[in-house]
Amino acid sequence: MELEHHPYLVPNIFLFVDRRCYPDWTIQKARISFHDLTFVIEGKANYYIDGKKFTAEAGDLVYVPSGSVREAHTFKDSPMHSYPFNFYWAEPHNHIQMPFQGLTKKVITKEILSYLREFNHVWMSKQPYYHIQARALFELIIHRLLTSFHRNLPTSFDPRIKKLTEYLTEHYSDHMAINEIAEGLRLHPVYFGKLFKQNTGMTFKEYVNRIRINNAEMMLSSGDFTVKDAAERCGIQDIYYFSKVFKEIKGYPPSAAKIK
Coiled coil: which residue ranges (predicted)? Predict the structure, then answer.
């Protein structure tokens, strides 16, 4: 079951530790009622999930879903250093599983590692309201993992594309010509197109249209704008093209957004 169909999932983290294993470290075999998401930073360990063996190394992610039988031990000559999160989804959603296999190789990027270290600082310092900040950081980590998994995207954005998407969020109504954008980034238009899709899962045109239509939907649902006004404010002058794209993306015509 896909997590995107469950927008109300809330993780309740009850255990997190900067785990630096000693050579004889183990987790005894037992069935768990929570979810275990472990990021391996250094060393190696064997995990057994429902009897299946996984060898986790630096850069890997281990996921043990609620209801699984879990067992683990580290390598004596290469003790594992990891950041494990043990958490429940707030009821009644704890049965929902994330789409990862028991072991996902090489997913820890500099971005994710920085989130992990910041989480460790927040969790250990326990300042007022730290649970809120910790949960937000954990959800950022989960979001980065899930979007990369869902779209088969790289786990870190090319900084040029990241900066561009931030710009598009604020200037979506402006004229957007792919040749001009590519020239501004000093990239060949064909290479820019491939790079953009590798990082976002969409073509440049699809991405811009989605931002425009999402903003148009918010305008229309407020009841303060006509379809023509919303289209023009989002940078689309052709009302027929706007209606066509709106329905392709949303599944219903823009006129229906006013009554949703």
Answer: none
